[in-house]
Every structure is written in structure tokens, then in C-alpha cells.
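1st attempt posting a full record on here, be nice pls
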Amino acid sequence: MAAHVAPMDRPIEVDLPHTLGREEARRRIAANIGSLKDHIPGGAAHVDSSWAGDELNLNVHAMGQVVEAKIAVEEARVRCRVLLPGVLALFARPIEAMLNARGGDLLLEDKRD
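the predicted structure (as C-alpha cells):
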């Protein structure tokens, strides 16, 4: 999950353990990715996403910034790498804490009725 890191960028890496298996975790992430923009402050976020195998590539456009993220789905964990550009790097710790605390809920929630 290597990405180019500019001098002011700050990467965050978080592992989210799960017991769902790779296929079910991937299905849930795919089902939930559309609501990701609802959890981004500022209200004007746009999310571009594409799958490459079991890795989801995201570009989140918000507040004049683009945040790149890669989410790798594994059998017993989801590995998230978020690259915070410029001034957003100042918020790395609270964002990392939120991902650790709620990332699994946001990404792996089962939205089926």
C-alpha cells in the first residue's frame, strides 16, 4: 500500500480486526462506501472510489483538499491507510483516534434489512 508522501503530508495507518472473512468484509465496505461523505465535516464532500482486487482506493474531496485512502480487505482485518495533505495533517491524531474507535462500525456495519 505504498503511496507518494509529500513533505507536508501525514499518513495514518489503522488496522481494524474483524471476524467476517474477506468476502463479507468486502461486501459490507462496498455497501457502506456511499455513506462515507455523510461522516465528513463541511457537508460538501465528494468521494471517488475504485476497487483493485481486495483493495479499495479512495479520493475524498472536501474543504478544498483531497485525501487519499487505501483500504485493504484481509481475512481477519481491514488495513486502512489515509494520507492527509497539508493543513489536514494537523488533525492526524483525532482522525486516527476516530478511525480506531469507529472505523469498524462505519466500514463494516451490515446494512441489509
